[in-house]
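Collaboration report, partner site 2.

Our partner group contributed sequences for two proteins of shared interest, and the home lab folded both. The records are reproduced in the order in which they were received, starting with the first partner submission.
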Amino acid sequence: MPDFPRDGVVAVVKRDCPTCRLVEPVLAQVPGITVYSQDDPTFPPGARDDTGLEASLALDVETVPTLVRFAGGAEVARTAGWLRPAWEELTGVDGLGAGLPEHRPGCGSRTSDPELAEELLVRARGHTLASRTLELTALEDEAEALYDRGWSDGLPVVAPTRARVLRMLDGTTRGPGEVVAVVPPNLVPVTVEKVAINAVLAGCRPEYLPVVLAAVEAACTDEFNAHGLLATTWGAGPAIVVNGPVAGEIGLNSGGNALGQGARANSTIGRALQLVIRNVGGGRPGGVDRATLGHPGKVGFCFGEDEAGSPWEPLSVSRGMAAGVSAVTVFAAEGPRGIADQISRTPGSLARSLAAGLRSVAHPKLPMGFDATLVVCPEHARVFADAGWSRADLAAALAEALTLDPAEIVRGAPGGLMIVHAGGGAGMFSAVIGGWVGGTAGSTPVTREVVR
């Protein structure tokens, strides 16, 4: 911490600032002033060296020149730029800068220089990260280096510099060293810091981190069985539905193209979960991940439920969460396939159409062996809303429509079905997201609260 005077005036300047050069003679008129120079210790004569910016950071200087008056060891007044009346009031000296213009704006402090932002952030926080640092050579391409080291899912990733990880950790109140979960398949404990590193790699913003942490917690439970989902030759992977206020706060898409590209939160949160499983847990294709085909959503699959337009309670509430609580539900998911029904005008008819689509999961003769998620679009949801059908009413109608003659079923056991409301306001197109074997033999959806 710089040794500021207990009583007196401190000035912060830099030679590169025209206004600082303008007021150089004025500084000499202030008795006992302490001057710190950000870029040249010889400017003005007798200035203290602040090229390391310790004094500027301690004073939180944004503009130079800045004058600060201390009394009794505390700051009592401040002014930035050159304004004669303000300088005279702060210093108690009349007639400052005779012959100079009355006012000149200052310049940006070096502490605001984008080229120094990361260095200053790391310096301000200290060496608070436990993870080892990987140094790249000057000739290495950042994206290629991270891919070559196996940290990527095949797409370019964002380099997790110390400053970026520190900024990511600002997104949560949880401590960096707190263990979030034990990640399969290698059963490695993962801390908040390690999740933050993978969230940076995925391209997340800091405000997404609490959602990623909740998703990691949910995916690493015995009920979800991420190890089994990885090891199966079936092509499903983890997907995330987000409910509650956090979805809107972070810009998660629940409307048009909610299951597609274009929204940063949707594209990166699911990816961060997959990178944690890959980079921390060791779940990589060709290793424990034995999917015969897989699907593009295994890069990352996340979307919000359209609660505002839904005729039903939020999915999280149907799964035991309190209303208004932000939560994630992680479930096994194939790629979505659309169901087009532009004819049905009664809930019974539409339920039968949706059931027909659900029969395509895995195999027509395995309708109840595999879990599935049904995403009901707004135009279809209105048919059920107009008839007063609840989520439970629709689920019951689907169960009835999916009941087959035992002779038609080769093998299979009762599975699970989740119903989610999402999608654009135009188009009578809902979607089935096939899952994996349900229950104790496979994977069960898991819901967790998002803790900021």
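Second partner submission, folded after the first:
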Amino acid sequence: MLTEAQLIYVLIISCEVAFWVVLVLALAARYLRKRKRLSRGLLICLPLIDLLLITFTAIDLRRGTTPTFAHGLAAAYIGFTIAFGPVAVKWADEQFAHRFAAGPKPPPAPSRGWELVLYDINLWVRCIVAAAITVALVEGLVYVVGDNERSQPLLAWHKHAFGAIVVWLILGPIWSLVTAWRRPRADA
């Protein structure tokens, strides 16, 4: 028998799998079956996966389950899928179009210079958005619990979200700023 925390972890993993399955089905409908309306309908379902996860998490907490790290992770997962979902969908769409519909080869991510720095800054800004969404969702879950003392595992996600921003800044834009000109050119 799964504990409540284990159930939330299973649900998070299931949502990630569902995201990619629905995305592949949407792209297959668009490029292999030429059914654009079906493809759009499936793509609209992607945010519903997140809605189901946060609803289940809130219901679990509302019925008296003690908040755990897993409940906060569900909020973080949703924050990151909202912030990075469009990037993942665009990437998958370009790859699928190229491999199955004779589309152009997707451009590679920048590997040096200011293009790399700007690329990493763009991703870092998405990280900030994801962290803000995470904190907002955590606050909503704390409200559902109704007890700040019991909600400490949720409130710890404020620090985790801020930590993600700092680590991403260091390993993303700052690292690429320091190393972007030391890398050999791919075309040399």
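Feedback sent to the partner group on the second submission included the following. The two ends are 58 Å apart (CA to CA). The chain has five helices and no strands.
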